[in-house]
Write the structure tokens for this entry.
Amino acid sequence: MDNQQFDLFGPAFKANPYPTYAAMRQAQPLCQRDAANGKSIWFVTRYADVAAILRDSTRFVKNVQNTMTADERAALPPVPPLIGLLSNHMLNLDAPDHTRLRTLVNKAFTATVVNQMAGRIQTRADQLLDKVQARGAMDLINEYAYPLPIHVIAELLGVPTRDQHRFRQWSDVFVTPSVNIHRQTKKYLKTKRLMEDFTAYFRQIFADRRQQPQADLITSLLQAEEQGDKLSEEELFSMMILLIVAGHETVVDLISNGIFALLQQPAVLTQLQHQPEQLDAAIEEMVRYDGPVERATMRFAAQDIEMNGHLIRRGDAVSLVLAAADRDPEQFDAPDTFDPARHNNRHLGFGLGIHYCLGASLGRLEGRIAISTLLRRLPNLRLAAPAETLKWRTVPILRGLQQMPVVWDR
């Protein structure tokens, strides 16, 4: 089958990408496309291949400059400040830079710290439902799934939750592909304005914390020293971007995609209402079945690599399709069935290897509290519109609905 027959973008594809991914797994598990820079981009869809590449941080790197010769790097044009700010975070770095930055922030996500947040997450979930319960209807995303994790990450960072509307504007910019935003387009100008707002906001926060340290992650990052190294200002800004996006965008979609799956299977929803002890396993199945991260952030071949009869050339981009791998019948029985009782659910939704999701335990906790609170407090929760009419966001690497109207018995 010709590569071009696989349409991997647009609203129709995003509404249900799984049949396309199944066809790719079968016909072209390493699907090659031409990239704008004259090289190739490879879409990898089989579980075994995706897992192997996730673990191989030596041959498949995150920083494209680590695929280049010294002469090739020297010939690169200067990176525009806007691009550098958007891209110079842990997910796009390799060791030793990745190791240094991850070590600095890791202390904020220990099991002890995460478990201590459970009570505050529960309080916030109840506060959000208190506002809408008597109404009998809400947009589950904008009134619940979004404000809950943004409150959590703002509290973790030490940022006033009254500014959460600004977080959403910034986050929308961060998750939008940045190709060609260096050109003087309306998109560039909007991005530039929002990024200037972002940097001015956090520069003031940083200055305040240097003068008056608090018990929060920003203070910790400003004060931390690991092996005599501190974060530069650009690294601090990039870390804020990563934590805002990864700390809230993915949790929004975990909660809403999970509820969306449950609302289409009332028997399973009822079972979880009566057996809440099964919710931990159900969360794992939600991540596998329709997880928030559709494709991992890009990797690049550091050398020529032969894989399954294909030659991935040095510098080629590699897109790991987690959504396809987690529905691979070679790894999962009945992969297109949502089964909260699934055993040995070794999904790839949080990644593998050195880039395994730093906030996985926090995301699981937020998802469990958010969903269990909904099931407990909103009797007969159901969709207020046909599932097929709901619109999905078109961001390539994330999977989530734009809105989800729901109703319940008051």
Notes: The chain has one domain: 3-407.
